[in-house]
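Researcher: Let's continue the batch. This sequence belongs to Acetoin utilization protein AcuA, and it's 210 residues. Same format as the previous ones, please.
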Amino acid sequence: MHHAKTYHAKELKKDNSSILIEGPVSSVDLAGYTFHEGLVAFRPPKQQQKALIEIADLPEGRIIIARRNELVVGYVTYLYPDPLERWSEGKMEDLIELGAIEVAPEYRGYSIGKNLLKVSMMDDAMEDYIIITTEYYWHWDLKGSGLNVWEYRKIMEKMMNAGGLEWYATDDPEISSHPANCLMARIGKRVKPSSIQQFDQLRFKNRFMY
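Model: Same format as before. Here are the structure tokens for Acetoin utilization protein AcuA:
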């Protein structure tokens, strides 16, 4: 599959400061920036930066960032699903996962999350993919946000909706283990019906077990 990546950018202005949302960014560009010390949801900022540089080099890997000058304050990643997850079982070339999205706490409230998703979808190549994301409440910053599970889930869903991702049912045991967890997806305009069918089979694996 041809993995074209077309760069797009959008500027957000707030309180006399401007934040640039841009991507997909190259590993070289990423290496030149500093990661905000508040980006600790997955691992320490320097290690997270290293992980994102590696993703940016993958043929299908896409990193969209939010930065204030040279300081990265938010990002979203897209890549093939983890080999250990059911979503990789079909080895589908046209299914990628929104693996991580994070915004530094002091930059929340700028609508950075929504705009990271909007800029991601400006690239026409995204119409060739089924884009999925799996949301697990135990990854959410409930303490830092002061929200309960359902309030957080609502915000998360709204943010994903901004990128055209919608809720999809699944019998995946980890997702089914808590009602706030969910699978969300966006099916690109050019995705083949056979791929959509394959995605449906991945969503429901227990349906055929009698």
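Researcher: Any comment?
Model: Residues 8-203 form a domain with the Aminopeptidase fold (CATH 3.40.630.30).
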